[in-house]
Amino acid sequence: MANPFGDAMGDEGPAASGSGSFVHSADSDSEILEGFLCPICKSDLRTPERLTVHVEQEHSEEQDLLKSLKEIFSFAKQGILSKGKKKPHDSQASDSAPQARGADSSGICPTAAASLNNPLLQPGNWQAIGCECDHLAYFKAVRNPRLERYASETNKLIIRLDKLLDGCPADPDGKKRHEQSKVPWIDGRLVKLCPSCAKSFGITRRQHHCRVCGSVMC
Question: How far apart are CA 150 and CA 155, in angstroms?
Answer without folding.
Answer: 9
